[in-house]
Amino acid sequence: MGVNHAWIRIWRGAAAVAGRFIISQDGQGGFRFALVANNGQTLAVGEGYPSKAACVNGIETVRRNAPEATIDDQSRED
């Protein structure tokens, strides 16, 4: 029932790396997603969402915005 994961492509220059979003249910009945690379490394984790539809919407928001996202380094290290 429903979507267990959505396939994406992450563009880095001319090379594309396939990855996937994994949707899981947390212990409080909410939903979360993780962006996982083919090698199994978790690249990003989304916030908690009250429904699966809201979680999928969060994934779609990341998919739309990530290709154009800039890096805003607010760390104190050089």
What topology does this entry show?
Elements lengths: L4 E8 L2 E11 L5 E7 L4 E4 L6 H14 L13
Question: Which properties best describe this structure?
Answer:
alpha+beta, 4-stranded antiparallel beta sheet, 1 helix, globular, disordered N terminus
Commentary on this structure:
The protein is an alpha+beta fold. The chain contains one helix and four strands; from the N terminus they run E-E-E-E-H. A four-stranded antiparallel beta sheet has the order 1-2-3-4, covered by helices on one side. Strand 3 (31-37) and strand 4 form a beta hairpin. The longest helix has 14 residues, at 52-65. It starts with a strand and ends in a 13-residue tail after the last helix.
In short:
It is built from one helix and four strands; from the N terminus they run ββββα.
- How many β strands by DSSP? 4
Helix content: 10-25%
Distance between the termini: 48 Å
Number of helices: 1
Order of adjacent strands in the largest pleated sheet: 1-2-3-4
* Oligomeric state: single chain
Shape: globular
Largest sheet: 4 strands, antiparallel
Rg over CA atoms: 14 Å
The H/E string reads EEEEH
Average pLDDT number:
79
Low-pLDDT segments, ≥5 res = 1-15
Structural class by secondary-structure content: alpha+beta
Q: Report the sheet-strand fraction.
A: 35-45%
